[in-house]
Amino acid sequence: MNTLIVHCHPNPASFNAALTRRASETLQDMGSEVIVSDLYAQGFDPVEHERHYKTRADPDAFAPLAEQRHAYKTETLPADVTREIDWLEWADLVILQFPLWWHAQPAMLKGWFDRVFVSGGLYTSRMRYDTGYFRGKRAICSVTSGAPEAAFGPGGRGGNIDALMWPIQYSLHYMGFDVAAPMLSAGVQGHGYSYQSEERVAAHLNGLLDKWAERLRGIMDEATLQFPGWDDWDALGRAVTEPTHQRANALQANS
Question: What is the pTM of this model?
Answer without folding.
Answer: 0.91
